[in-house]
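Worked problem 6 (solution included).
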Amino acid sequence: MARAVDVRLRLAWKGYEPLDLSSREFDLLEYLAGHAERTLTRDELLRAVWGYTSAPLTRTVAKLRKKVEDNPRDPRHLLTVHGSGYRLFRDSQRCPHGRDRGVHRGG
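Solution. The predicted structure is:
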């Protein structure tokens, strides 16, 4: 299922369904999409999206994962890279499950 983000209008879709994202969730999705397929550390996300160096992040990632994934318990797009951070894969990109050590589907 296609996912789309319109940064100018601050809208996102999963297929033909618009996503009801909070401002922070959209900021996070926008940053992840702008760095797709690159592992982003927690610290980098905290600085870039939240504007500070230490605070909870996991809950927002989990909430966003529930909205963008077809099955949040078996994510295909927003993945956790154990010990490093998070990585977003677009529909057109092949998720390397099993080939990329350290990439996990869950939180």
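Discussion: The chain has three helices and seven strands.
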